[in-house]
Amino acid sequence: MKLLVTGGAGYVGSVCAARLHESGHEVVVVDDLSTGHADAVPDGCRFVQADIAESAAALLAEGFDGVLHFAAKSLVGESMQDPSKYWWGNVVTTLALLEAMRTHRTPRLVFSSTAAVYGEPDTVPIPESAATRPTNTYGATKLAIDQAITSYATAYGMAATSLRYFNVAGAYGAFGERHTVETHLIPIVLQVALGLREQVQMFGDDWPTEDGTCVRDYIHVTDLADAHLLALEQAQPNQHGIYNLGNGTGFSVKQVVDACREVTGHPIPALVAPRREGDPASLVAASTRAQQELGWQPVRSQLSRIVIDAWEFARARQ
Ligand code: UDP
User: Fold this and answer.
1) Ligand 1, CB cutoff 6 Å, lining residues
2) How far is ligand 1, taken at its centre, from the CA of residue 78, in Å?
3) C-alpha torsion sign, points 102, 68, 80, 179
4) Which residue ranges form the domains of the chain, and what is each CATH number?
5) Dihedrals φ, ψ of 189, to 5°?
6) Ligand 1 binding pocket mutation candidate from 185, 224, 284 (most atoms within 8 A of CB)
7) Which of 8, 125, 266, 271 could form a disulfide with 29 if both were Cys (CB 3.0 to 4.6 A apart)?
8) What is the rounded distance in angstroms from the CA atom of residue 284 to the CA atom of residue 250?
């Protein structure tokens, strides 16, 4: 297939672009490099540096079999302080992309949605049928896009899939997480092991969890990429499939820090800090729908595997 990958210079987008290219697809990456890196675009993929809203129509006029839409603003804290950047950058940009797909009859879409659409869950593990009550603007914009995709797919015949990511981590060789402003737990902890930070702050140890620290569902980025390939192959016209992607196993902040100590051999000093605003105690995916309907199976679900791959990537970049 000829595929347009938006945000293919970013973390998840570059890993997926690499896997799509290796699977024999023709990949065109479009990215404005606002947070991505030109050297993260995999070899063999054509790269167009452009604003997606401005360039989507001209690009899709070439004729594409599908779009994988990764490009997004994705910092929860920033989304609360500067919501305009998120409503315009995520929702308006995606509407422009959807319009271009409609005009040029692009048949397939895979969209990077998020567990943040659920907000504070009533039950854990979280199924796709859970109530969607996002507690931050980032999650609200992703939910609005999911809803727009449902109407576009139903009315205009697209085969669409939204993949709701839980905590994506790990790396794929030279492709990994390299945010200018790092907020995610595993890369922050590894920065301590690299000597780039003194210590890690654990946001709260009085949560209603087994060891008092927050529990999250960490999914290896290559398992995530596999789900995108399956979604592309299996989506049906006029339908919008929505799938959670996680390992179905939760790990606490303390368990993550311990796993990083074991993998790196570094003592990694960790302090207990106040809770971070907006953090739910525990977020774990029920991913049975993706397993049953897409035939997806996470194969790198061990926390040690995720940390080893993230560590190799982080060390190689030093
Ligand atoms: N966390 C932490 N210290 C940090 C960064 C994150 O204790 O420096 C915690 C955070 O409160 C959450 C978990 O680690 O419980 C995962 O946070 P992250 O930002 O990686 O992902 P999120 O779950 O917020 O999407």
Assistant:
1) 167, 183-185, 188, 200-203, 214, 216, 253, 276, 279
2) 15
3) negative
4) 2-165+221-245 (3.40.50.720), 169-217+248-286+298-317 (3.90.25.10)
5) -60, -40
6) 185
7) 8
8) 6
Nearest to 77, CA basis, from 111, 115, 116 = 116
- Range list of H helices, the chain: 11-22, 52-60, 76-81, 83-86, 93-103, 137-156, 185-193, 221-234, 253-264, 288-289, 303-316
pLDDT tens digits along 91-131: 999 999 999 999 999 999 999 999 999 999 999 999 999 99
Residue keyed to tokens 């702050």: 201
Distance from Cα 14 to the centre of ligand 1, integer Å: 23
Radius of gyration of the chain (CA): 19
Look-up of token digits 């210079």: 9
User: Which atom, in ligand 1's list, is nearest to the CA of 115?
Assistant: 25
**Which pLDDT tens digit goes with each residue over 292-306?**
999 999 999 999 999
How far apart CA 70 and CA 194 sit, in angstroms, is 29
Structure tokens at 188: 């922050």
How many whole angstroms from 279 Cα to the centroid of ligand 1?
Answer: 8
Six token digits for residue 6? 């938006």
Opening angle at CA 249, ends 146 and 199, nearest 5: 95
Asked if 171 and 11 count as a contact pair (C-beta separation under 8 A), the reply is no
The sign one gets for the Cα dihedral 147, 151, 154, 159 is negative
Strand 215-216 relative to strand 251-252, pairing: antiparallel
Share of the chain above pLDDT 70, in %: 100
- Within 8 A by CB and 6+ apart from 164, the residues are 113, 114, 115, 117, 128, 242, 243, 244, 245, 285
Look up the ipTM and state it. 0.98
Rounded to two decimals, the pTM is 0.97
